[in-house]
TrEMBL record:
Domain Sorting nexin 8/Mvp1 BAR: 17-85
InterPro entries, alphabetized: Snx8_BAR_dom
Record's protein name: Sorting nexin 8/Mvp1 BAR domain-containing protein
A matching Pfam family: Snx8_BAR_dom
Classification lineage: Eukaryota, Fungi, Fungi incertae sedis, Mucoromycota, Mucoromycotina
Length: 86
Protein backbone atom coordinates (compact mmCIF):
# COMPACT_ATOMS: atom_id res chain seq x y z
CA UNK A 1 0.00 0.00 0.00
CA UNK A 2 1.49 3.31 -1.03
CA UNK A 3 1.74 6.19 1.39
CA UNK A 4 -1.09 8.34 -0.08
CA UNK A 5 -3.40 5.31 -0.20
CA UNK A 6 -2.60 4.52 3.42
CA UNK A 7 -3.33 8.09 4.52
CA UNK A 8 -6.69 8.15 2.76
CA UNK A 9 -7.55 4.69 4.12
CA UNK A 10 -6.55 5.79 7.62
CA UNK A 11 -8.80 8.85 7.42
CA UNK A 12 -11.72 6.75 6.22
CA UNK A 13 -11.21 4.01 8.82
CA UNK A 14 -10.65 5.75 12.11
CA UNK A 15 -9.94 3.39 15.02
CA UNK A 16 -12.61 2.55 17.53
CA UNK A 17 -11.73 4.17 20.82
CA UNK A 18 -14.57 2.71 22.89
CA UNK A 19 -13.73 0.48 25.79
CA UNK A 20 -13.39 -3.06 24.49
CA UNK A 21 -14.70 -4.63 27.64
CA UNK A 22 -17.23 -2.60 29.52
CA UNK A 23 -17.22 -3.63 33.14
CA UNK A 24 -20.64 -4.48 34.41
CA UNK A 25 -21.32 -5.75 37.89
CA UNK A 26 -22.48 -9.34 37.56
CA UNK A 27 -25.65 -10.52 39.17
CA UNK A 28 -24.15 -11.86 42.36
CA UNK A 29 -27.39 -13.50 43.35
CA UNK A 30 -26.88 -15.99 40.53
CA UNK A 31 -23.28 -16.62 41.55
CA UNK A 32 -23.99 -17.10 45.24
CA UNK A 33 -25.72 -20.37 44.46
CA UNK A 34 -22.43 -21.74 43.14
CA UNK A 35 -20.55 -21.17 46.42
CA UNK A 36 -20.46 -24.35 48.50
CA UNK A 37 -22.21 -24.14 51.84
CA UNK A 38 -19.19 -25.61 53.63
CA UNK A 39 -16.63 -23.26 52.07
CA UNK A 40 -15.20 -22.16 55.42
CA UNK A 41 -14.70 -25.77 56.48
CA UNK A 42 -12.97 -26.58 53.20
CA UNK A 43 -10.63 -23.61 53.51
CA UNK A 44 -9.78 -24.53 57.09
CA UNK A 45 -9.11 -28.13 56.05
CA UNK A 46 -6.74 -26.94 53.32
CA UNK A 47 -4.96 -24.61 55.76
CA UNK A 48 -4.36 -27.53 58.10
CA UNK A 49 -3.01 -29.77 55.32
CA UNK A 50 -0.89 -27.13 53.60
CA UNK A 51 2.29 -27.35 55.75
CA UNK A 52 2.41 -31.13 55.36
CA UNK A 53 1.83 -30.85 51.62
CA UNK A 54 4.62 -28.29 51.30
CA UNK A 55 6.96 -30.57 53.25
CA UNK A 56 6.15 -33.53 50.98
CA UNK A 57 6.64 -31.40 47.86
CA UNK A 58 10.00 -30.19 49.17
CA UNK A 59 11.02 -33.78 49.86
CA UNK A 60 10.03 -34.85 46.35
CA UNK A 61 12.00 -31.96 44.86
CA UNK A 62 15.06 -33.02 46.86
CA UNK A 63 14.74 -36.62 45.67
CA UNK A 64 14.41 -35.50 42.06
CA UNK A 65 17.42 -33.22 42.42
CA UNK A 66 19.50 -36.11 43.75
CA UNK A 67 18.31 -38.33 40.86
CA UNK A 68 19.33 -35.69 38.33
CA UNK A 69 22.78 -35.28 39.90
CA UNK A 70 23.21 -39.08 39.95
CA UNK A 71 22.30 -39.37 36.26
CA UNK A 72 24.71 -36.56 35.39
CA UNK A 73 27.48 -38.30 37.34
CA UNK A 74 26.73 -41.59 35.58
CA UNK A 75 26.79 -39.86 32.19
CA UNK A 76 30.18 -38.30 32.99
CA UNK A 77 31.50 -41.66 34.14
CA UNK A 78 30.29 -43.31 30.92
CA UNK A 79 31.99 -40.59 28.87
CA UNK A 80 35.25 -41.19 30.73
CA UNK A 81 34.86 -44.93 30.18
CA UNK A 82 34.24 -44.33 26.47
CA UNK A 83 37.27 -42.06 26.19
CA UNK A 84 39.39 -44.71 27.94
CA UNK A 85 38.37 -47.38 25.41
CA UNK A 86 39.35 -45.23 22.42
Amino acid sequence: MRHPEFVSWRRAKSPIVEEEFIRVNPHTDDLEGLIPKDLDDRIEHIRKRLPESIEKYDSLCSVMDRCIRLKEARALEMKRYNDTLK
